[in-house]
Fold:
Amino acid sequence: MKRVLDTTIAGTTGYDPIRNGLIVAHHGISVEVLFAGDVREMVRVKRNSGHVVGDNVTVTGEVLIRLPRATELRRRDARGGIHLVAANLDVLGIVVAPLSPTGFIDRAIVTARTAHLAPFVVINKCDLAETAELIAYVSGIYAGSVPLFPLSATTRSGFAPLLEFLCTGRRGVFIGSTGVGKSSLLNALCPHIDLQVGNVGYRGMGCHTTTVSTLHTLTGGGELVDTPGFRDFGLVDISAQDLAAHFPGFENSAAATCRFRNCRHRSEPGCAIVTSVQQGCITPERYATYLEILDEIEADEEKNRDRGRRS
Structure:
């Protein structure tokens, strides 16, 4: 396989043709680029070059240039580090299973909508008896907000609706905490990739075995990105207004516009969400979850303002 260099390492000769490509795998210090005719080449990059799977690029001789992104998905880890997951996505699949962290779905939906991605939820491991309770819980909260796909990657059951949804030209990525079965899910959707599946360990969360981000094409159409698993999904660059606009469960109250355009749905006069809670259209539990995430965002905003005043 031919190797070329990133622009951060070498310059162009000025005589080589410009070729358009797509990054389909990231190996840390190199990326795999797919060109027309299913030609693939490895491109050396700096470890922190910022390139991700899904990036459209041009390669001229030994020069790789990233083209502008239509969308990008980022997350914040438990230590505050920000990670770019993938680029030029259309949909975000949120995979959950028994013992998934509390609040993961809400944060992921808000992140997706703010990034202009269409979120959907996959409830995996439906062959387990304990998943029935999770299906009822997730359906009760999110059925009116996002598409839901209960299935079992182990028994390969329940996949038809998900395949129909994905195989319409969409490029997506599955996110989920370690042990929810993302690798098994991808193996079922893309049998040719044969990802290694780790054993379930402490508290059933297991050890995710994927270490390289890769993009795969579905037989019926559409594309999926596989990324290393993670236990947390912190919000990145999400404002209080973003949360107020995109929090799942508030959609049915959207017709009743709040008096103030920048309403945070706390105690502002004429708040349609507060009224919906009082009328029983939004449950107190959902509203409490919203306020908990809002507190988190406002605390981060205050920290950023403090840093700005000190600088």
